[in-house]
Amino acid sequence: MWLRRSNTTVRAHNASSPKFACSSFKDIHALLAEDDGSGSKDGLDSPSICHRTRAVKTLLRTLSSSSAIMAPYSRNDSQIWIPGAEKTVVVYFTSLRVVRRTFDDCAAVRSILRAFRIPIDERDVSMDSGFMAELQRILGLSQKSALPLPRVFICGRYIGGADEIRRLQECGELKKLVEGLPSVNPSTCEVCNGYAFILCQDCNGSRKCYSHKSGFRSCTSCNENGLIRCPSCFSSQF
Question: Residue 89 in 3-state DSSP?
Fold first, then answer.
């Protein structure tokens, strides 16, 4: 005997599925934006939490590295002096474009200081490595210490780098520091064409001198590049 199938149907309770049933992170992000009412439709106006966290970590890493570099010679800046430079500004810089930020900082500092028309002793470490060794000795650093450029001394006293010069320029204190310095003509030197170096007259840049008695010998008058400081620029400033 066959049983007759009942025509009654039993409907199961179909609860409405929540909006976050989908496992997609995009839908969850949109759901949160709809709940707080501050987000847009797609929820992409504000930066994500991961992006902001990554930016903060990068900033903290940059600040920690910069403070680690500046720490060795920023504690007793008032005690750092260059003897015999009381009537000039001494700038240690580089003219190489290897590191763009360093080159831009050096160019900006030189431009700011030249606007005052004061005597400036520009010491290019890329033209003479002895300037870098001299600066490290003045600041009490070892030869392997990282030393960002430029470094500025006003009236013999150590001031700092590009950030300090810009800060002093903005607040007007830089003008007060150079008020006592004599004014100079900002024209370009005709001897060195503004490079502050010329070829050594003893070896003509070859770094080798010849004599009949001893033959060839290393020239002791020039640097490793066969250059000497321009006598016209240096004598006109001091």
Answer: strand
